[in-house]
Amino acid sequence: MSLVLGWLRAAAYALWALPLAVGPVPPRLRVPRRLLGESVTPRKYSAVRAVWHSLLSGALAVVTWFFAFLAVLGAVRGALYPLLTSGYENAWGGPSLAGAWSVHLLIGAALVPVWLLVLAGLGTLQVWLARAVLGRAAPRWPVAVAVLVCSAGVLLFLAWLDQA
């Protein structure tokens, strides 16, 4: 149970990172400690580091909110499948409505833990990013990973918009 609670807290921190990214630096250092028990030992204040963290953390938080949107969309569409579709003869689980609905409901429900893990991973990356940019004696690889995740998120968003 505590593992799932940790995932939920990390996912909540990932979603909370967007308002934190546009706020002052002290809450960015305080919230990970209070919510996750993860401390970020601050280095001497630098406006350049604060802006750099705002840009990276904000972009990563926007990607996180897009993933959360996709998770809710998938779960709701699975649960409300008969209300959202006009034809189900060629759908997974078809040709009956009950079969198509049950398959879509099971897939939507089965993906909820996967989405939770993705959001928790993004929350953990947010903590590592805060340590790398605002903290002392931290590795710099979270910056590169954050840039890669943001780039992949933009490509996913563009592909999602372009789908037929």
Question: Would you kindly provide a brief summary of this structure?
Answer:
The chain is mainly α.
Could you explain the architecture of this structure?
This protein is an all-alpha fold and 164 residues long. It has one domain. Helix content is 78%, strand content 0%. The protein is built from 7 helices and no strands. The longest helix is centred in the middle third of the chain and has 33 residues.
The major pleated sheet works out as: none
Number of helices: 7
What's the domain count? 1
Oligomer: single chain
Whole-Å distance between the termini? 40 Å
Mean pLDDT: 85
Please describe the structure with a list of short key phrases separated by commas or semicolons.
single chain, 78% helix, mainly alpha, 164 residues, 7 helices
List the helices and strands and how they pair.
Elements: H1 2-21, H2 25-36, H3 47-79, H4 81-84, H5 97-110, H6 112-134, H7 141-162
Helix pairs in contact: 1-2, 1-3, 1-6, 3-5, 3-6, 3-7, 6-7
